[in-house]
Design brief:
mainly alpha, 2 helices
């Protein structure tokens, strides 16, 4: 899965606004198939934005130490 570069967050917000405008226009013109396609695109962009926000929240955390794995029968 491709990750969005954090500085591109503003661009994602711009895309969301643009898709909202295009959905309104399509509804006003009765283009129901276009509305559905644009809504799918809008959900995908919102998902990217939320994953970018999640990444930003977790990036500032300290690493977790998992320790050394214990391998059964490894002492032979």
């Amino acid at each position: 899965m491709l990750r969005v570069d954090p500085p591109r967050r503003r661009r994602l917000q711009e895309i969301i606004r643009n898709l909202g405008d295009r959905i309104e226009e399509a509804r006003a013109n009765g283009w129901l198939g276009e509305v559905q396609g644009l809504q799918i695109s809008l959900e995908a962009v919102r998902s990217k934005l939320s994953s970018l926000d999640r990444l930003a929240r977790t990036r500032n955390r300290a690493p977790v130490t998992l320790g050394m794995p214990i391998i059964p029968g490894g002492d032979r």
